[in-house]
Amino acid sequence: MRPIAALLFVLIFVLSPSRVQAQASEVIWLTVDATSLKTGETVRVWVNAVSVTPIQGFTFQIRYDPNCLKPLNAASPIAGMNGLGLPQTDGLVDASFASTVPQIVNGVLAEVRFETRGGCQTTLNLESAALAVRNASGFAAPLPGVKLGESKIALSIDSAPGIPASQALAGTPLPLDPSPASAPASSLQIGWIAVFTILLIGLLGFGINRALQKTVQ
Amino acid sequence: MMKFKSHMQILVALVMLLGFAGGIQGAQAQSSAVVVVRDLTYWDATYTGYVDANRFEEWPVVFTAAEDFTVTAAPDGGSLTTLVVLKDATGTEIARGDGALTSSQPAGNYFVQVQPVTGSGFYHFTIRRVEIEDPTDPQTPSASASANPVSIKVGETSTVSVSLNNLPAEGYASAEFSCTYEMNGVEVNAITFTDLFGADPATAVNGPAGGGFIAAVAGSNGRKATTTGVVFTFDVKGLQTGTTVITCVPRVSKGDNTLTTLDAVSVTLTVTDEVVVVENATLTGQVFAGKPVTVSLYDAANILVKTVVANPDGSFSLTAPAGTYTATAEASGFLAAEGPVTLVANETSVKAAVTLPAGDIDGNDVIDQFDAMTIGMNYNASQPASADLNNDGVINVLDLELLASNYRLTGPVVWP
Question: Domain-by-domain residue ranges, chain B?
């Protein structure tokens, strides 16, 4: 009876789906340098991955609260993995990187920087992410079986002012500012534009007036 | 003995006398025998005659309609063997037979001459109608087939019905039809059995294949076919012009484990040319993209009807039969445009100008990160060609710029 039970146990262990998944899984997850911050400080977010398959690109989308955070830029420390400048929408970092050569990644894929905007309790959410390979036709294709690991990170932002990070990003920074079209202008911005326009018109009128006076004299 | 001889002499004398009384014509026979013409009044009656080497007899026959008949001249014992010769009105021989003959003749005047082959003596003459088995005879079990319509055009379909007629009182327990047809001329399908053999019959179909099929049906739970009716039908589709004969050989069983073959039945189907009057219409328009554009028309069944490559400036013109279509414009690496088109015969329809959004490099109807990454992975290369959105031979930031301007768009875009 005992040998049969042992054999059964071994069979279950060997055939266990969780074991198969553990061997084959390639994971992407988020980490941050700090979860408690002050206003105006820089949040450093790392997108990490482990892959046994050489990849030629990756993409990730991080959802954030634009009232609490302002995306600054992103960069990949992987040599030859270049950021692709694509339109951004408010509240979502959409970053893609690609390389002309395949390479195995094990660690940080990219660093993303945010600036804190004010007192907030907020969450960064790795909404989607994919590792990409170049298929036989030359097209980027998602590497199948990649799972998301840690994807939500809560941040506590104090309204007290802090100090922005001065350390430069490793790699070429990829701007992540939402385009003006997708980021609605704030009332403050509109006010400044109005003041500037009035000043410009005033200066123009003043200049014309002076020129006319000189002509009369 | 003497008495018998005298009787015979009297009889011969009487026959001779009757022969003359009946209007004997003194005809010259081949062997110089006298041909005595006899009177014949009734079908199936038996007449008595006498022939010998010098005397032949001729029986005039008048047919008012075509007849199938048998004539017999049976010797009344003795050494006589007879030869029966059928002649027409002019005396020309039509047929002959030893002791009897069977023939089919149209309406007209004929003569049946009886002469001895050997011996001489009396004979019994009879003419009878022949009962030929007629499929239309209400007493004879038979099969029949009909096609509706009997003439079709290529691509059209006719329905053939195969029936059993005049079934015996005890009925048929099962029937099997082996049918053949010209497989290059027609196509057979939709073999459907009726309830002639009762409800829920057992059926089997072998084929159609190789220009033939077998259709078999048997009544279930002791049911039988007892009345005339259609056993099964099948559709015949014309494949090419010509005349096609479809023949079915029926075999029937009364439930006694014996199959009896009935006469084969045939139906002739004529397949004629399909005459299609095509009224063409023209569609023009202009599609803007940085790559060669292909414009296509699809019909309601989504079957490609026409396709053209637009000119370098995006303008195009294509001709197609009048009708309603879906027009598509496609270029490698661009989202497609799609819209409805109604073409009117002998008229030109103008489709609104449309610009295809660049960036759907992998052709999945969405411009996304993977299209962008394809540019990054193939930076400064020329392949895949769909990533070279500006068609300058190199995949670089200029292509990424085009893609970025349409990022997240999905297709196909509406082509009004």
Answer: 2-129, 142-272, 278-416
Q: Do domains B142-272 and B278-416 have the same CATH topology?
A: yes
- Chain A residues with beta carbon closer than 8 angstroms to that of B366: none
User: Residue type at B94?
Assistant: I
Task: Identify the closest residue of chain B to A129 by CA–CA distance.
Answer: B369
The reply to whether A179 touches chain B by the CB within 8 Å rule is no
Set of chain B residues whose Cβ sits within 8 Å of the Cβ of A139:
361-362, 370, 374, 384, 387
Selected residue of B374, B386, B402, B407 to mutate for chain A interface (largest A Cβ count, 10 A): B374
Closest residue of chain B to A59, computed from CA coordinates: B369
The CATH number fitting domain B278-416, selected from 2.60.40.4130, 3.40.50.1820, 2.60.60.30, 2.60.120.10:
2.60.40.4130
CATH number for domain B2-129, candidates 3.40.30.10, 3.40.50.300, 3.20.20.150, 2.60.120.380? 2.60.120.380
Q: Does B399 touch chain A (CB under 8 A)?
A: no
Which residues in chain A have Cβ-Cβ distances shorter than 8 Å to B403? Answer: 86
The answer, for A159 touching chain B at a CB cutoff of 8 Å, is no
Q: 3-state class of A92 per DSSP? A: strand
CATH number, domain B142-272: 2.60.40.680
How is domain A25-178 classified at the CATH fold level? Answer: Immunoglobulin-like (2.60.40)
For residue B378, which residues of chain A lie inside 8 Å, CB to CB? Answer: 100, 134, 138
Domain spans of chain A, in order of start = 25-178, 185-217
**pLDDT by 10s per residue, chain B, length 416:** 334 444 444 444 444 444 443 333 433 344 568 888 888 777 878 888 888 888 899 999 888 888 888 899 988 877 889 999 999 988 888 889 888 888 888 888 889 999 999 888 888 898 988 766 555 555 688 888 888 888 888 888 999 999 998 888 889 999 999 999 988 889 999 999 999 999 889 999 998 888 999 999 999 888 899 888 999 999 999 888 888 888 899 999 988 888 888 888 888 888 887 655 567 889 999 999 988 999 999 988 888 888 899 999 999 999 888 889 999 999 999 999 999 999 998 899 999 999 999 999 999 999 999 999 999 999 999 999 999 999 999 999 899 989 999 999 998 999 99
Judging contacts by C-beta atoms under 8 Å, the chain A residues touching residue B407 are 86-87
